Amino acid sequence: MSIWQAIVLAVIQGVAEFLPISSSGHLVIVQKLMGLSTPPVAFDIWLHVATLGAIFWWLGRSLKLSISSWKLVIVGSIPAGVAGILIQPYLENIFNSLTVVGAGLLVTGIVLLATKFGNKNQLLGYKTALLIGAAQAVAILPGVSRSGSTIAMALILGIERQAAMQFSLLLAIPAIAGAQVMEMNELINNSNGWGVNLIGFGVAFIVGLIALRLLSRVLRDKQLHYFGWYCLIVGGIILLGGK
Q1: pTM above 0.85?
Q2: pLDDT confidence of 190, banded at 50, 70, 90?
Q3: Domain extent at residue 159
Q4: Which of 225, 221, 228, 232 is nearest to 117 (CA)?
């Protein structure tokens, strides 16, 4: 893998992991349009570890939650864990399909637009955590944004905006970490070159922090639904012209 390819993929991962436009979907799109080879699994792990690091950096001291709060994270993580196991045999075909990506972006767009009609002032409990976790499970599909789905579901349920973002990021920790642990053998047998991996890590980490700041501002200004129009347009174009 060349350095420029590593930088392009790292930027996409850093931006789309947190902004509600689907990192997996955009990585598939860019690889198809630019004729890029599928990156080594080890490099993909480094990118996800970088965005995981950005989450820890962003949350900082707020990671010191009560036991009851971490119980909510555990409950919210169950649907994605089950879905990940069930869908594992079909991942390769799913992640090579632009049709799946296009359909996923349409789903993301509709969900983001629905955030304008959510209830208000609901507290995060086990039921809401499970529903938000179910949204995260659907986001295993490329094109369905993990951050967009979880934050949108939280807003629709009436969770306060910054609390919705925080819980979405907390749910990302076991989701991202768990997925990468399953691929650790590839990391151990890495033949991609440490230089390229470290460049990808650094770019994804920095861009991820910038994206988190932008996401926080978007939520504060109640502009999340605008990303819905973007996802609908891109998803529609892909379905009309993709394979």
Answers
A1: yes
A2: low
A3: 3-241
A4: 225
